[in-house]
Amino acid sequence: MTAGDLVVHRPEGLYCPPGDFYIDPWRPVARAVITHAHSDHARFGHGHYLAAAPAEGVLRARLGDITLQVLPYGERIVHHGVTLSLHPAGHVLGSAQVRLEHRGAVWVASGDYKVAPDPTCAPFEPVRCDVFITESTFGLPIYRWCPDDEVFADIDTWWARNASHQRASVLCCYSFGKAQRALNGVDPSIGPIIVHGAVRPLNEAYRAAGVSLPDTLMVTEVKDKADLRRCLVVCPPGAAASPWLRRFGDAQTAFASGWMQVRGNRRRGGYDRGFVLSDHADWPGLLEAIAATGAQRVIVTHGSSNAMVRYLQERGLQAEAFQTEYGDDVVEADLQATTPEETK
């Protein structure tokens, strides 16, 4: 790091010295700018939170009663001489990149992002800057995503086949972001859709934000037990290993994640199927986003950061890595937020 840097690494997280605030800090601080509401970026215990306006519902659903200030995308505020604005990251509902401007220098901290279209959140917006802080969760050339319509066609075919054999289809995915994207993309005419208790409040936040989701049921709301043998079940990964799953009988399980791109991950997880569906940019997407910023200096965070740094350096950019406490993907303690009735 050099003198005058707008963002530096501290034990609490990524810190803006002139502005005296943190971006997605992993330890409690007085002022935190939050890029999105996933649990590895938005943690409880900060004195004051600033986030993009569309994130308000999901942040409150996850963190409860917090002191939260929201900012519409693109609107600028000045704090201690630092001009700050939030711009769509395309990751999940309310996800944002943080643009900082001070004394003529412009930095952008991306948070997590994807460049592929997603009807459940605002699309990624390239922001020109001098320094770009980018994630690299899937920062290796092996990670290249298929179009969503192909993935959802595969999921619908799997669900319909299982339903024809009187088997429930259990689709495991993270309760915030991935679950709503899956619900938005599947064909609800195939059968009833049941969601886990960890997914329901986030669905409500998405609907309140104007995102279209099909009708869903809690398992306790199912009147006809035959529906349990032909439904699609959307639940967090932890539920697949819990007694909650037993009520669906001889169900087929699948996991929707970018990690399913690697052979063996599905088998090691014990799933019958794996669908490659990620809320992060793939390798071409990361390179596209970095190039679009025009930044000559790039700081790489969580994921395959060393490989990405080497690649960028070989192409003439000034690249380095920040060691952060963000997850390679979101591993949520979703079941802790549900009632005994929803998990037993």
Automatic annotation (TrEMBL):
Enzyme class, UniProt record, top EC level: hydrolase
Gene3D superfamilies: Ribonuclease Z/Hydroxyacylglutathione hydrolase-like
EC numbers, comma separated: 3.1.-.-
Keyword terms: Exonuclease, Hydrolase, Ligase, Nuclease
GO molecular function annotations of the record: exonuclease activity; ligase activity; RNA endonuclease activity
PANTHER family per the UniProt record, alphabetical: BLL1145 PROTEIN (PTHR11203:SF49), CLEAVAGE AND POLYADENYLATION SPECIFICITY FACTOR FAMILY MEMBER (PTHR11203)
Name of protein: Ligase-associated DNA damage response exonuclease
Organism this protein belongs to: Ramlibacter ginsenosidimutans
Lineage: Bacteria, Pseudomonadati, Pseudomonadota, Betaproteobacteria, Burkholderiales
